[in-house]
Amino acid sequence: GGEVAEAPRVVDRGYASLRNVNALVRRKERFLVAVRAKPGSKDLSLLEEVGTWEAWPEIAPGVRGVSVMRMGVKWTVTWNDEVAGRNGDGRRAKMKQARDALERVAKGIEVGRVKSRSERDRKVGSILARYGMKRFLRVEGERNGLGFRVEETGVREKKEGGDDGYQVYATTETWLGEQDVVTFYRHRDRIEKAIRTMSSVLGLGPMWVQTPEHVRGHVFVHALGY
Predict the structure, then answer these.
(1) What helix, strand, coil percent values describe the chain, rounded to 5?
(2) Which residues form a coiled coil (predicted)?
(3) How far is it, in rounded angstroms, from Cα 34 to Cα 15?
(4) Going by C-beta distance under 8 Å and a sequence separation of 6 or more, which residues neighbour residue 99?
(5) CA-CA distance, 66 to 20, in Å (whole number)?
């Protein structure tokens, strides 16, 4: 109802860690946050009982969700087909870019532009970091010479086979259904994104707001300046 939608709560567009959630609980804050860790990670082993997304009820087209109660907090886990596909496509594109860049390094070695192992390792490390492939590609230098081999670590297949598409939310508003949790979070996510966009254009630094009056004033000043 309207009283729920208007209730004060902590809603953060960033991803909260389990430590952040525990701190909010200790301060007796009301909150609705997205959680950084995914099902299966050691930080959220308490969610193992939810099983895999295939058995969950559909809460919206292409979205499935389930919840469990722990530590006085409702933990809602969702699976989104669109997000899973988008994450996989983006990762595969970056992997191709990384492999192409590594191939250019290999050609540089062949023609003598790369002259030492330290230079090779520096270039390889820079490529893996630039495309976020350190977990997905393993690069091993050959024992003799400057050549190297590139292999996939298997993490990509694991993520595309199960991890991609998951999102975890934590909230003290235990009466909310799975779809309500996602909807309320996204509504406030749009507000935060709008403020950050205007802040970036106006060159304003981060500002901490806590009360409804602060939020309204913050939006008004940004909109006026924008």
Answers:
(1) 50, 20, 30
(2) none
(3) 5
(4) 137, 150
(5) 22
Query: Which helix (H) or strand (E) segment is 59 a member of?
Result: strand 58-60
Average pLDDT, stretch 50-60? 83
In angstroms, the CA 67 to CA 75 distance is: 5
71: left (phi over 0), alpha (psi -120 to 50) or beta: left
pLDDT tens for residues 149-208?
999 887 666 555 556 678 889 999 999 999 998 888 877 766 666 777 777 777 766 666
Q: In sequence order, which ranges of 58-177 are alpha helices (DSSP H)?
A: 81-110, 117-130, 155-158
Tokens of 217: 């004033």
Would you state the pLDDT for residue 3?
Answer: 46
Please give the single-letter amino acid code of residue 192.
E
Q: In the block, which residue shows the tokens 């975890």?
A: 168
Average pLDDT over residues 107-114: 93
3-state secondary structure of 73: strand
The closest alpha carbon to 169, from 76, 50, 55, 74, belongs to 76
DSSP-derived pairing of the beta strands 32-35 and 166-171: antiparallel
Residues 132, 34: Cα–Cα separation, whole Å: 22
Phi (first) and psi of residue 144, to 5 degrees: -115, 135
Nearest to 187 by CA among 8, 64, 11, 2: 11
The pLDDT value recorded for residue 189 is 64
